[in-house]
């Protein structure tokens, strides 16, 4: 941990630096490849929407010895639709059937009671109508759209429109990757998934705004100097906050990984999967986009400005001039001059005057 702290301090002081902005085309290519994979997954497999979004019924049975596989088969035969069955901690079963007509719920319930060998009155049925599920989906999309608009407005006011555009692209990148992985994995999309998405968008913005704030501070009077271009200062901003971003991401991922892999996978609490997967993927994607997408994109947009183009020319011209001056000093002529006139090191002793002391009261010649 001390080594990581020393690394962070050296990155912050600029003693070492990783060229994130200079290699931005590589990061863009990786992001495009991942995004295309996510879009293909969405187009081919689609999202497994929960009953909250498409309507259906949830049947909760008393404690039973019937296995999850058998209960799933019974539910699909009774309803004619795919069913999701989860074993609860009490030994009861939660049977979820999406897309069914709620008017047939009593018939399905009676059939399940016979197959599971329990009384119909012992099975609890919760129904969700298709219109209500569609309303939930529409409200979720409206909330996401309002969130995006408010984010763009805030960033445009607090920073500038280029940073707002870069942050919006990073957010869309994170959402696309997260939903694409949901489609590929096949996890059910529930209101918990929407909550997870909104949570990771806020986290992604936090990480991005930290870098943008550092960049804004360091580029306040950028045109008054000729040492660094805008892209180089942007790269310094990323390096200065790199270890902080890594630390916050790792700390946030550890409990989420516990929910996903231990709670949802090892312990079988499937209800945790919907929110934990969106948090896990979104947190990782948000950290990636804030470092490799948002800030390099801002640098690309800013370098198109006439003032930044002129600054880049001045910086490169000064460096070329300095390199040429060093080349002349290190050339053959410079070497001969150094050999002819050796450098004087230390204080230079002046010859003593023979007439020192003449004409002064204290001066005596002997």
UniProtKB/TrEMBL annotation:
Tell me the ranges covered by the Protein export membrane protein SecD/SecF C-terminal domain, including all copies: 113-303
Query: What are the UniProt keywords, alphabetically?
Result: Cell membrane, Membrane, Protein transport, Translocation, Transmembrane, Transmembrane helix, Transport
Q: How does it sit in the membrane?
A: Multi-pass membrane protein
| TM helices/strands, residue ranges | 26-44, 140-157, 164-187, 193-215, 246-269, 275-299
Top-level taxon in the UniProt lineage = Bacteria
Write out the ranges of the annotated region (Disordered). Answer: 324-366
InterPro entries this protein is in? SecD/SecF_arch_bac, SecD/SecF_bac, SecD/SecF_CS, SecD_SecF_C, SecD_SecF_C_bact, SecF_bac
Entry keyword Transmembrane helix: yes
Give residue spans, biased composition: Basic residues: 355-366
| Assembly and binders | Forms a complex with SecD. Part of the essential Sec protein translocation apparatus which comprises SecA, SecYEG and auxiliary proteins SecDF. Other proteins may also be involved.
Q: What is this protein called?
A: Protein-export membrane protein SecF
Gene responsible for this protein: secF
